[in-house]
Amino acid sequence: MPVQSVVRCETYDQTAVNEAVARHFEALDVRGLLHPGVRVLIKPNLVAGRRPETAATTHPALVRAAALWLRERGVEHIALADSPGGLYALSALEPIYSVTGMKALGDVVSLNRDTGFQKRACPAGFENTSFNLINPVCEADLIINIAKLKTHAMTRLSAGVKNLFGCVPGLQKPELHYRHPDIEGFSEMLAELARLVSPQVTLLDAIDCMEGDGPTGGTVRHLGLTLASRDVFAQDWFAAGLVGIEPDSVGMLVKAKARGWFDPEAIELVGDEPVRAEPPFRLPQTASVDFTGSLPAFLRAPARKVMGRLLKPLPKVDPKKCVGCGRCAESCPPHIIVIENRKAKFTAKGCISCFCCQEMCPAHAISVKRIFGGRMRG
Questions:
Q1: Do 251 and 298 lie in a common domain?
Q2: Which DSSP state fits 348?
Q3: What value does the mean pLDDT take over residues 208-216?
Q4: What is the 3-state secondary structure (H, E, C) of 296-327?
Q5: Cβ distance 367 to 318 under 8 Å?
Q6: Which domain range does residue 300 map to?
Q7: Region of poorest pLDDT, from 14-18, 220-224, 265-269, 298-302
Q8: What is the tens place of the pLDDT at every residue in 102-122?
Q9: Is 375 helix (H, G, I), strand (E, B) or coil?
Q10: Going along 212-337, which residue ranges are E strands?
Q11: In terms of domains, do 273 and 355 share one?
Q12: What angle do CA 110, 115, 118 make, to 5 degrees?
């Protein structure tokens, strides 16, 4: 029976966050996962170089709280690692550590500077035969997955499961997008990746969340909660409902449920009374024409397939905002974006609607448009 811990926490005041994390870890008996010499990895969401107040990345206060709790119990080996979007290189990691506030945590965690990776085979029966995972993931005895609760342009929800995509090194993530261009295959891949990594604890930063065009282009939405579970799939199922997203509209959770990897009906709530978002979180532009939530459950999946064919979402560049940095071209799986005269340019042909370009754009110059019957709609 998956235990879902809920603790209210209205601010990022370090004392308040320390108390919230301690309550979670006691409720989940994290102490029972520790042993002499244990090597712990804290896996935050460092998708891009964004300041903590933008709610695009995990707030450093939660990382510090988790690390302090571990150190108070004698844990000496605590690493912090993630593979953000773009190149997985030290030259890219250092500024991200600085901007996101993680650099200041060097007194309690070891910031990862090893950009190597290892191949890990998947269990029998998986659609994917293997994944390349960054070294700190492969070397850890205990993984604490500290994710930010956000909406997401492609997967609708970004929380514990989606955060584990950062276990795949650098530009190999766009390669996986290209190998799984449709949401069905991509969702299957994310579910299998999460099952392979299997973090022992998932902690969600839901104090300040992101709604709208997440994971980086949305707006801050205060929820005032922290969530934790030892079951990453159950955690995300619960979190989706909390912010007004129908869990069965999140493909990676549907795939995991169908495999029997978790049972939503068995979730046991402990801690504080959940505070549900009212009104529900604003969804990304990519979901703006999705009416399927009002349909009977058995009709939602086929309806979404039909709508996906008729109304395909595509990214569009605003040349007035584009700074020509090339981050969109670097992260584009089918490599259809070029930089001309310091502006990004691409066409609909070949686009797989993964929105990696929108996710990585630091200038918020990329929005979503839809084509209907071959014609672009604003």
A1: no
A2: S
A3: 96
A4: CHHHHHHHHHHHHHHEEEEEEECCCCCCCCCH
A5: yes
A6: 288-377
A7: 298-302
A8: 999 999 999 999 999 999 999
A9: strand
A10: 219-229, 268-271, 311-317
A11: no
A12: 110
